[in-house]
Amino acid sequence: MARSNYSFQKRQKELARKKKKEEKRKNKLEKNSVISQGDQEPSQNEAPPEEERP
Known about the structure:
Residues 1-54 are annotated as: Disordered. The protein has 1 helix and no strands. The chain has one helix at 6-40. The mean pLDDT is 81.
C-alpha cells in the first residue's frame, strides 16, 4: 500500500495560505487607496461651504 506524502500536502497548504494572505493584503491596499483618494478630492455632489455674512 502506498504512503501519503504529507510533506507535499503541507507545502501545498502553506502555498495556498500565502496566496490568500497576499490577496487580502492587495485588497486592503486598494480599498485604502480608494478611500484616501476620495478624501482628498471633493465630490461633485457636495456644495462648497458658504461663507457667513454679518
